[in-house]
């Protein structure tokens, strides 16, 4: 997916597959987040698990909140082969959507995300990270994909080592692999 440079994009991680049972650490973190969240989020986080349906509900509520405040929001949009969803708010060079000053736009966005999404998104991201042998299998497949596309990636390289390299992200050959395997979200300008 490509997005123009004049567009401000807010990305919210939302995996397309059903939520796997969380580890104790995930439940602990989610439970901790519940105590620091608004009523809407506290209800969802109360059991320490965020399901796909709950996350979709949170992103829909966030989008609706911003739209009710006059912002032009499009979404949810699928990113990274549908594993994640985000939303887009178009901006001009000097103002926010609908002619609102950029600082007003940002404060509305921040308020809506804090009310409906921030804690839920944090818990969901933790729940979606591969661990142990699953993480190693993803790393191996990711590296193989990149090498098949002609990138010089060491077979023992960590995902962080190549994803943090700006030349890697800029290399168009890497994009199909990023889309398939990354648990991060990268945006590519139209070119």
Describe the protein's architecture and organization.
With 191 residues, this protein is mainly alpha-helical. The protein has two domains: 7-128, no CATH class; 132-181, no CATH class. The protein has nine helices and three strands. It has a three-stranded antiparallel sheet with strand order 1-3-2, covered by helices on one side. Strand 2 and strand 3 (84-90) form a beta hairpin. Helix 1 runs antiparallel to helix 5. It is globular, with a radius of gyration of 18 Å.
Q: Notable features of this structure?
A:
single chain; 191 residues; mainly alpha; three-stranded antiparallel β-sheet; disordered N terminus
Tell me the distance between the termini. Answer: 12 Å
Strand order of the largest sheet: 1-3-2
**Number of helical stretches of at least 4 residues:** 9
Instruction: Give the SSE string.
Output: EHHHEEHHHHHH
Binned strand content: 5-15%
Low-confidence runs (pLDDT<50, min 5 residues)? 1-23
The coarse overall form would be: globular
The radius of gyration over CA amounts to 18 Å
What structural class should be given to the helix and strand makeup? Answer: mainly alpha
Helix content: 40-55%
Largest sheet, in brief, is: 3 strands, antiparallel
The total count of strands amounts to 3
Instruction: Tell me which oligomeric state these chains represent.
Output: single chain
Average of pLDDT? 76
Whole-number tally of structural domains: 2
